[in-house]
Design brief:
Elements (H helix, E strand, L loop, with lengths): L5 H28 L3 H12 L3 E2 H8 L3 H13 L3 E5 L6 E5 L1 H22 L4 H14 L10 H4 L5 H6 L20
Antiparallel strand pairs: 1-3, 2-3
Helix pairs in contact: 1-5, 2-4, 2-5, 3-4
């Protein structure tokens, strides 16, 4: 058997990392909310885009129209979401309730905690290097037709606005010293 090339080794390890991170994030978010993955994702999206329509939510979730309506019905029945009139009579706008916002905040905190648990032991220069590499790799994911909104559906948009998001184009500035950078 031929010796694996460096590119194969890197790709393979990146795949293992992606799988493990996905599992950690999903578990942490499910434990934080008691809800399923699609419900959690919808709450994060709705918090980032108040007034989003069912159709736009459907596109970001990658679900069918009927599945998205059932999901919104579930979230509304649980007190997380309210429907209001949209820009015209044909569409409804979706908003989080205060209960939904609290749940979303728990979800984002659980997601970040699960990810920081993996990167927490990196030195400051290693985190900066990883951040630079992510800035190069993340935009490559849109070459296959994935939209930034879909890729960032679980992101804390507030963090991206402060920290130069490579996908959504936010132009925030890095703070030279953070409490956790030491």
């Amino acid at each position: 058997m031929a010796k694996p090339r460096m590119r194969q080794v890197v790709a393979n390890r990146l795949g293992a990392l992606a799988t493990a991170l996905d599992e950690r994030v999903e578990t942490a978010m499910t434990e934080a909310s008691g809800l399923g993955q699609s419900d959690n994702t919808a709450l994060v999206i709705l918090g980032a885009a108040p007034g989003i329509t069912v159709r736009a939510l459907e596109r970001q979730l990658g679900l069918s129209q009927s599945a998205t309506v059932r999901l919104v019905d579930r979230l509304q029945a649980a007190g997380h979401v309210v429907r209001r009139d949209g820009r015209d009579k044909r569409e409804l706008a979706l908003f989080l309730t205060s209960f939904g916002e609290e749940c979303r905040d728990r979800l984002l905190a659980a997601r970040i905690a699960a990810l920081e648990n993996v990167t927490g032991d990196l030195a400051k220069h290693e985190r900066r290097l990883l951040l630079a590499l992510l800035g190069r790799l993340l935009p490559e994911l849109t070459n296959d037709g994935a939209t930034p909104e879909h890729l960032c559906r679980l992101c804390d948009r507030h963090t991206c606005r402060r920290r130069n998001c490579p996908l959504l184009g936010f132009e925030g500035q890095f703070e030279e010293k953070d409490d956790d950078d030491e």
